[in-house]
Amino acid sequence: MFYRHEYELFYSARALRAGARNTVGRPARDAMDQRMVEKFGGAPEDHKRLNESLWMLAHGATMLIIGKTILPTEVQESRATFTAAVAALLEKSAICKAHTCPRQQSPIHAPRSAIEIPAIGN
After folding, report:
1. Distance between CA atoms of 90 and 95, rounded to whole angstroms?
2. Which of 23, 34, 103, 106 is the most buried (most CB within 10 A)?
3. Does residue 86 contact residue 57 with C-beta atoms inside 8 Å?
4. pLDDT tens digits, residue range 10-24?
5. What CA–CA distances, in Å, run from 90 to 10, 45, 69?
6. What is the pLDDT of residue 79?
7. 70, 77, 32, 22: which is closest to 52 by C-alpha?
8. Is the per-residue pLDDT at 71 higher than 90?
9. Is 105 helix (H, G, I), strand (E, B) or coil?
10. How far apart are CA 90 and CA 108, in angstroms?
11. 52 φ, ψ to 5°?
12. What is the pLDDT of residues 26-52, one digit of tens each?
């Protein structure tokens, strides 16, 4: 994490409450879109769910490390777990893109309305 301080400042709740706005667009996510097209073909829209999943995974991992929810002694192992999770998502997507699994069974490619999210606390 090379820009930890900047990342923390930009995404902190205090900055958001103070009215901080993203005025540079989405360069990192746009770059991810391009990489998905290079790796899997198609158009960026074809990879929206995968891109969003990877972005959420990376953001969550970063915030857990910044917030010290993941102890400094556990960061190296957590990064290995993160890397394995990214590899699994990319592998699953590659298999589905090759049509060796039905699209409707892959939550990576399913429309949001098709994914059941269990209720919590009912």
Report:
1. 9
2. 106
3. yes
4. 556 555 556 666 666
5. 28, 16, 26
6. 93
7. 32
8. yes
9. helix
10. 10
11. -65, -40
12. 788 888 889 888 888 889 988 888 999
- How big is the chain, counted in residues? 122
* 49: its two tokens: 């769910």
DSSP label at residue 16: H
Local structure of 118: helix, strand or coil: coil
CA–CA separation, 4 and 63 (whole Å): 10
Q: Rounded to an integer, what distance in angstroms lies between the CA atom of residue 16 and that of residue 10?
A: 8
Write the single-letter amino acid at 59.
Answer: H
Q: Which residue has the tokens 């990489």?
A: 35
What pTM value is reported for the model? 0.63
- Closest Cα partner for 29 from 2, 63, 57? 57
Per the structure block, which two tokens stand in for 24? 């540079």
Q: How far is CA 13 from CA 3, 18, 28, 79, in A?
A: 18, 8, 21, 24
Query: Tokens at residue 9, please?
Result: 């400042």
Distance of alpha carbon 122 from its chain centroid, rounded?
28
- Predicted confidence at residue 4, as pLDDT, reads 62
Alpha carbons 100 and 35: distance in angstroms, whole number = 22
Q: What percent of the chain has pLDDT over 90?
A: 23
